[in-house]
Amino acid sequence: MGPQDPKDVTRDTARDLSGMTGELAALKADARHWLTSPGYAAPYGSGLKRRMRRSRQRWWRRGGG
């Protein structure tokens, strides 16, 4: 496989990034739907919210952020 034309590389990269942007938008919409649902609003969280809080705490203890 030889060198590629920079225009082809740019076009392919733009197409890949556009696809990833769409996937991230869909994931964000799904997360927002689940996190704002009435069953999720329990005091101090239950299930997913509690797991997310614990995960964030572990991440901070490891030096993240």
Task: Characterise this structure.
There is one protein chain. The chain has one domain (6-61). The protein starts with 5 loop residues before the first helix and ends with a helix. It has helices at 6-35, 48-61. The model has no long low-confidence stretch (mean pLDDT 80). By secondary structure, the chain is mostly helical. Helices cover 68% and strands 0% of the residues.
Q: Which bin fits the share of residues in helices?
A: 55-70%
Portion of residues in beta strands equals under 5%
**Main beta sheet strand tally, sense and closure:** none
- Which residues form runs of ≥5 with pLDDT under 50? none
Number of alpha- plus pi-helical segments: 2
Distance between the termini: 41 Å
SSE map:
Blueprint: H1 6-35, H2 48-61
Task: Write a concise keyword list for the protein shown above.
single chain; about 60 residues; mainly alpha; 2 helices; about 0% strand; elongated
Question: How would you summarize this macromolecular structure in one to three sentences?
Answer:
Helix content is about 70%, strand content about 0%. It is built from 2 helices and no strands.
